[in-house]
């Protein structure tokens, strides 16, 4: 019975995986916004997650925005149609895109269709993989250019074909960065969803000769 119980705890369901990935997006986006100084330090409070001390916003409007995005994101993860989530950081005045944090999502089609068995993976292993990404995000300040102007954010979501968009969503330009510097980050997998991360950023003018 003990062995069987351990196996059951390691089985990854579609809803459980969607919850894990959506929660990662929540903490990941907040961590980026804090580390990059997009919002003031006093707009965040420390939270313990994944065995790490991470920062979560206390700004009511930002929380409402993120909650709305991530609630819909979780639904699309459960449907198996989410392909990519992108956090775009833009200079407020010029609307120039300064950073583009991209999270590619790969979905186990057999689980979505119900044609294959549910995979299993220890929660500890998934947590360890997520820890590695969070640490990279925290360390990003060592190589990313300082954001010296007031910035705004957008979250872009790419899906497979949808019959219709939710009312509060709209089509958007990709908001890319010309001649961007790109740094690949670590990824993690629940065996239902796999996430690969990268950041593209505008190179400092001194580096463009």
TrEMBL record:
Sorted UniProt keywords: Cell cycle, Cell division, Mitosis, Nucleus
- Gene3D superfamilies the record matches: HORMA domain (3.30.900.10)
Q: Provide the transmembrane region boundaries.
A: none
Q: Where in the cell is it found?
A: Nucleus
Is Translocase found in the keyword set? no
Keyword match Nucleus: yes
The Gene Ontology biological process annotation of the record reads:
cell division; mitotic spindle assembly checkpoint signaling
The segment(s) forming the HORMA domain are: 15-199
Q: Which cellular components does GO assign to this protein?
A: cytoplasm; kinetochore; nucleoplasm
One short Pfam name that applies is: HORMA
Q: Which family does it belong to?
A: Belongs to the MAD2 family.
* Protein name, per record: HORMA domain-containing protein
């Amino acid at each position: 019975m003990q062995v069987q119980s351990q196996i059951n705890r390691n089985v990854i369901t579609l809803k459980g995986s969607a919850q894990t990935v959506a929660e990662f997006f929540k903490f990941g986006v907040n961590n980026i916004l804090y580390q990059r100084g997009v919002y003031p330090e006093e707009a965040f409070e420390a939270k313990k997650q994944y065995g790490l001390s991470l920062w979560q916003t206390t700004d009511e409007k930002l929380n409402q925005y993120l909650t709305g995005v991530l609630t819909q994101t979780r639904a699309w993860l459960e449907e198996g149609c989410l392909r990519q989530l992108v956090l775009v950081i833009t200079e407020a005045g010029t609307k120039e895109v300064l950073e583009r944090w991209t999270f590619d999502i790969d979905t186990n089609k057999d689980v979505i269709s119900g044609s294959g068995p549910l995979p299993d993976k220890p929660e500890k292993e998934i947590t360890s993989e997520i820890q590695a990404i969070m640490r990279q995000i925290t360390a990003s300040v060592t190589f990313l250019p300082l954001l010296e102007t007031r910035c705004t954010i957008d979250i872009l979501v790419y899906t497979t074909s949808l019959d219709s968009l939710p009312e509060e969503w709209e089509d958007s330009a990709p908001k890319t960065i010309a001649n961007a510097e790109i740094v690949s980050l670590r990824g993690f997998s629940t065996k239902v969803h796999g996430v690969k991360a990268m950041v593209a950023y505008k190179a400092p003018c001194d580096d463009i000769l």
